[in-house]
Design a protein that fits this description.
The protein is built from 14 helices and 18 strands. By secondary structure, it is of the alpha/beta class. The two termini are 22 Å apart.
Length: 422
């Protein structure tokens, strides 16, 4: 099957065609030809890309696929539909399923089940068995089965010795350790960011200290043990400063930020909307400003969605009883263009969603000839309103229903799968 995408402009710094208006010919899931000007005399399905931009397929480093174990919330097919609707061709599946992804067989299950979906779903294996924080898993076996990283997310590794040994253990095969840093003893029963607002709400607060104290710990462990470390979901200004210094010191550290921490602040929880209840909690405007500065100066490497599907029984309840998390695959691009499109260039936004996260897990998805197609066709200018009918996920736990967005995903090309969106 051939597809010809006409007149789109490439947004890919690693591509020889970056910034150029081109025709792209796909055949059997491969990029056969990229040409400035028109490709003619070809029998192909034609897709008009006039006024649109072609980027590498988006890559998300933190997605809860909920399969196996929580299929009523999400399954591999539904999460793939949500991913494609949001422009994602690759998603990394955290290990927090039931059973937890902690063996070669469980890694292979996710990879095999995803092969017919059109989305590359890459498992993240657990660091410790059943997230117990003590007993190491067979990370080497999972690596050879296809795990791209190792993490106990959404749990934190409490034991410093375990964290240090994990960093050491994966070095012979170039493994990556990922963490969402927080100290549960400092989080306690906290519900929202600790501030004047939490006091007014009568809610127990979660301090920035609960995050940046573990950021500091893990940086020192990395400095001692070596290895590669990625910190996901940085939310506190102090964390940004610590990671900036660690990078200046030459440590192999990267970090990402979640979309909702870039576009919303603690003010959003004032009306007790449980869909805004996330972890880490939404922080202050000063913290958000620090995250934006971190993106600008290269401290923060990538943007993720923290897609966390939850059924109505666990989300549509009183704020203090609701579980943390929101879905985010379908809204990521539109929210970022709407809120950050004036501050950052289109190339920057696309890079943080695509090439940068792919590079962290050692993958490449550049737009060039003779490579598999992993591309997303984007319209940056269309204004629209996100509604429940736009949700492909099984779960509906998002606070952004009814929210004005800007920028739409028009089509996604992932191997032999071509998804045209309206």
């Amino acid at each position: 099957m051939r597809h010809l995408i006409r007149n789109s402009t490439i947004l890919d710094a690693a591509s020889p065609f970056n910034g150029k208006k081109v025709d792209i010919l796909l055949e059997d899931g491969q990029i056969q030809q990229v040409k400035e000007g028109s490709i003619t005399d070809v029998d192909a399905v034609v897709i008009d890309g006039e006024g649109c931009y072609m980027s590498p397929g988006f890559c998300d480093l933190y997605v809860h696929i909920a399969d196996p174990g929580f299929e009523q919330r999400e399954d591999i097919r539904s999460v793939a539909k949500a991913a494609l609707a949001g422009g994602f061709t690759t998603i990394c599946a955290i290990a927090g399923n039931h059973p937890i992804t902690q063996s070669k067989a469980q890694v292979e299950y996710i990879i095999q089940q995803s092969k017919q979906t059109g989305v590359r779903i890459l498992p993240i294996g657990a660091i410790t068995e059943n997230f117990d924080g003590k007993t190491p898993t067979e990370m080497y076996d999972m690596h050879h089965a296809g795990a791209v990283a190792f993490s106990d997310m959404p749990q934190a590794v409490k034991n410093s010795g375990v964290m240090m040994r994990a960093l050491q253990y994966v070095q012979p095969f170039g493994g990556l350790i990922m963490t969402m840093p927080y100290d549960q003893t400092l989080v306690g029963e906290g519900q929202v960011n600790e501030s004047e607002r939490s006091v007014r709400m009568g809610m127990k607060g979660i301090t920035n200290l609960s995050e940046y104290s573990i950021v500091q710990r893990d940086i020192e462990l990395l400095r001692y043990a070596g290895g590669k470390l990625h910190m996901a979901g940085i939310s506190a200004s102090e964390s940004v400063a610590l990671i900036r210094k660690a990078k200046q010191d030459g440590l192999q550290i990267s970090c990402s930020v979640f979309v909702h921490h870039l576009v919303s602040t603690e003010e959003a929880v004032s009306n007790f909307d449980s869909n805004f209840k996330v972890f880490p909690p939404l922080r202050t405007e000063a913290d958000r400003a620090a995250l934006l500065q971190g993106l600008e100066d290269g401290t923060i490497d990538a943007i993720s969605t923290q897609h966390t599907p939850l059924d109505i029984d666990h989300k549509n309840v009183e704020f203090e009883y609701a579980e943390n998390g929101m879905i985010g695959l379908e809204t990521a691009f539109g929210l970022l263009v709407q809120h950050l499109g004036e501050r950052f260039s289109r190339e920057q936004l696309v890079n943080w969603l695509s090439s940068a996260p792919a590079g962290i897990i050692g993958k490449s998805n550049s737009i060039r000839e003779a490579v598999p197609a992993e591309m997303t066709l984007l319209d940056f200018d269309t204004a629209w309103t996100f509604t429940e009918k736009d949700i492909r996920s099984k779960s509906k736990n998002t606070p952004y229903i009814g929210t004005p967005l800007k920028g739409k995903v028009k089509a996604v090309f992932s191997g032999n799968t071509v998804t045209i969106l309206t």
